[in-house]
Amino acid sequence: MDKAYTGPNYSGHEMDSIIANEQTISAMPQVNAVEEIKGNGEVFKKYGLISLVFAIVYTFCLYKNHSGITYPIFMAITLGFLQIIRKKDGLSLLSSRNGSKALGIFYVSALMLLSIHKCMTTSWALLFLDATAIFLLFFSFMLYLYVDTTGWDIVGWLGGIIVSIVLPVSHFVNPFFDFGQWVKSRNGKMEPQKKQTFMAIVVGVICAIPAVVIVMALLSSADLVFSQMLKNIANAIKLPDNFADIIGIIVTLFLSFMAAYLIPYTMERGDVKIKARGEGKANPVIAITFTAILGFIYLVFSLIQVLYLFTGSMKLPAGYTYAEYAHEGFYQLVFVCVLNIVMVSVCTREFKTSKLLTAILVIIAGCTYIMIASSALRMLLYIGVYQLTFLRVFVLWFLAVLCLWLAFLMVGIFSKTFPVFKASMIAITIAYLCFVFANPDYQIAKYDLATTDGKVAAYESVENYIVANLSTDAAPALASNPELLHKFELEVTDSYRYAEETHEGIRKFNFSYNRAQQLFNK
Fold first, then answer.
1. Cβ(112)–Cβ(75) under 8 Å?
2. Nearest 5 degrees, angle CA 150-CA 153-CA 154?
């Protein structure tokens, strides 16, 4: 037996009314969910064109050419583009978020000087160091312009630089969405069906590329006939001789466009957020304990350095010369000095203020200065026997930089408002500019020749080092020794890194290479 209906009872008139209402509702237009809008046409309008021009300038100036006269031209244009972007926002190229201009002038001047030096040397070591300095200094400059860095310490600045380098990668697709919105604003909205079809095709092609590569590789290894057919097809395709350059130029244009678009974009959005340093919260007893133990060891070690190296009052172990003693353990000692500076930075940042901890850190700093002096003296003793090399000169410069850095850290311990990073950055940048513009390779060759009294052949290792390791920067120092200059010319002529296409022509003109060629042709 069916269960009896117990619901509401409607009259015929009420049923007709309900049915009419349902038909009215079904006839109403359906409201679709709000479509999420990705991209911003105004952002592309702001950065798109200038990023495209920058990409063309970058590729023309720097593609396979990082030591040519176009490098300072590129840097000047880059700063000009940055000024245009800043002006659109009513800002200045030199002014920070706080309105200060002094540091902005320093950044611009340093970047231009480093760029000028790029076309004045052919030393691979200096070119690498120049590129690294420009890279770090530029991102530091961008933080100065767009981020409030008040209260940042060294860790904050280093963290900010790392974030500003990595962050644009996370917005890699944004320019494409921005471009799509910009096109819509100019040509009207694309029909949803066409948009879905177009995006599906794009996604399908992207997915097919790796799949095709993998499948063709597997099928080629599985069947010799198919493999031979693919080889015949590849041989039939005539690629231009400079096909690799065509691909390289396209990739360079794309990556430089993305960098020019995304770096100022992410900076202006305020995505770089680093918490300003506050007072340390960790228990200082922890730091006092381990720094006191290390401090005692450093005191003993420093006493030995004074007795063995500075006064010479103690005899060396049997079989040791001062040169051998100086060279042994040198780089380990430099590493300990760097470790001490890092330790002082961490203790002042993470632990609560303590007079005892401050006293121990000052003692450790004093011992570190003794270690730095010991390292420098060791290197000078070694140079006195085995002459100069670029690495030995650079190490001496690095030790001087450590002295400056440690001095600023000590000031920061007693004055919490002292800008340790800014002071260190300015001092190290100026020290580096002095180092590179002093022409290290020239000074090394000049010193080595002077200490050997011109008889280079009697010191075969010195001759080999000058000819095989120094760049064309050293050529003027060899002008008074025609035989050595001729050997140097042969080395330059045979070396791949000095090939004519590397340094010849207006775009790749290099002052050091040109000066050496003039000496060779006399």
1. yes
2. 135
CB neighbours of residue 510 within 10 Å: 24
User: How far, in Å, CA of 174 to CA of 158, rounded?
Assistant: 26
What does the alpha-carbon distance between residue 72 and residue 376 come to, in Å, rounded to a whole number?
Answer: 35
Distance separating alpha carbons of residues 115 and 73, to the nearest angstrom: 8
Name the residue type at position 10: Y
Q: What is the DSSP string of 319-368?
A: T--HHHHHHTTHHHHHHHHHHHHHHHHHHHHHB---HHHHHHHHHHHHHH
Gap between the Cα atoms of 160 and 163, Å rounded: 5
Task: Render pLDDT for 372-431 as a digit per residue (tens, 0 to 9).
Answer: 888 888 788 778 877 888 988 998 999 899 899 889 888 888 887 888 888 989 999 999
Q: What CA–CA distance (Å, rounded) separates 517 from 382?
A: 34
Sign of CA dihedral 255, 258, 259, 260: positive
Mean pLDDT (whole number) for 485-509: 76
Task: Report pLDDT for 32.
Answer: 45
Q: What is the CA radius of gyration of the chain?
A: 33
For residue 405, give the nearest of 391, 422, 392 by alpha carbon: 422
Q: Give the separation between CA 145 and CA 92, rounded to whole angstroms.
A: 9
Decide: 168 and 262 in contact? Cβ < 8 Å: yes
CB atoms within 10 A of CB 111: 21
311: helix, coil or strand? coil
DSSP strands (E only) in 324-475? none
- Tokens at 445, concatenated: 């060759």
Do residues 353 and 280 touch, judged by C-beta distance below 8 A? yes
Pick from 162-171, 230-239, 309-318 the range whose average pLDDT is largest: 162-171
This prediction has a pTM of 0.79
Give the closest residue to 321 by CA, choosing from 386, 371, 376, 369. Answer: 386
φ, ψ dihedrals at 179, nearest 5°: -65, -40
Q: What is the mean pLDDT of the segment spanning 300-314?
A: 71
Q: Quick check: helix, strand or coil at residue 150?
A: coil
pLDDT of residue 383: 82
Tokens of 71: 């490098």
Q: Would you give the DSSP letter of residue 33?
A: P
Calpha distance 272→164 (Å, rounded): 6
The token duo for 325 is 């003693």
Q: ∠ at Cα 387 (384, 391), nearest 5°?
A: 115
State the Cα–Cα distance between residues 342 and 349, nearest whole angstrom.
11
